[in-house]
């Protein structure tokens, strides 16, 4: 009687998922469950992850970077992805997005741990993750250094299923490291992961130079050096147009005081539409302080009231 062996991603049959034939296969297999076609950049990103290659993926906000999370998991339902996310709210949104595509997902943070324990005292989200209940596990950078997460990584069965570690909004590694040192602490993640797991950074706003250098250093994206005896993993970069061409930045000279409750210099934002507010595009007004932002918002709302 044959015995089914536990799933082990490290022992998978090696296929080059970045060939044109393989990319077509990914497209064909995901088209029906998703209900739409993925674009070339998304397909190449998914193929790179399935190959086990580290990846830095740059694409505009709202451009579909999340396909690199759910795509590999839909292609290989036995694998697991860990996603480091900057906020609890974003984690919750991402979990809902994954579940809508049929991917089992969980956000593990202090709020969800408390809620799960309150609902079912015996419930342990970490233990459920270890046993394979979830394909996508979202957590904060701070939880990556917790004893519970370390125990999860050391579990042999979980480690064998772990295919990719993804840092969403990876530019924050450079921008937030001073007040969230856990981002800098991700420097050790490459060494803690199984060798078959890929590391992926997703972002829309990574500046060349020092910022990108910091991100690549922390994620372990180092170009191999033949003179260096230490083994270095090469990585792939897929960089696309990150501009949002439907957005324009408008600089307006301020001629009136901003210390009060009236901001005449902003009247044009509302008045230019002559009361036809349904045609007004989404508009962002940048303010130096939160307090000033509240006063500006109150004034603009008053203009909207008189336009109705």
Descriptive notes:
The protein is α/β, with parallel strands linked by helices. The chain has a seven-stranded parallel β-sheet, with helices on both faces. The mean pLDDT is 90. It contains 14 helices and seven strands. The radius of gyration is 23 Å and the shape is globular. The chain has two domains: 231 residues, Rossmann fold, CATH 3.40.50; 44 residues, no CATH class. One of its GO terms (molecular function) is four-way junction helicase activity. Belongs to the helicase family. RecQ subfamily.
Features:
308 residues; alpha/beta; Rossmann fold; 7-stranded parallel β-sheet; 14 helices; 7 strands; ATP binding; four-way junction helicase activity
CATH class of the largest domain: Alpha Beta
The CATH topology of the largest domain corresponds to Rossmann fold
Count of all domains: 2
The ordered string of helix (H) and strand (E) elements is HHEHEHEHHEHHEHHHEHEHH
Q: Rg, please?
A: 23 Å
Number of strands: 7
**Global structural class:** alpha/beta
* Major β-sheet strand ordering: 3-4-2-5-6-1-7
Roughly how many Å apart are the termini? 76 Å
Shape: globular
* Number of helical elements: 14
CATH architecture of the largest domain: 3-Layer(aba) Sandwich
CATH superfamily of the largest domain: P-loop containing nucleotide triphosphate hydrolases
In the predicted model, the low-confidence regions spanning at least 5 consecutive residues are none
Into which percent range does the helicity of residues fall?
25-40%
Strand proportion, as a percent range, falls in: 5-15%
Report the sheet with the most strands, covering strand number, pairing sense and barrel closure.
7 strands, parallel
Rounded mean pLDDT score: 90
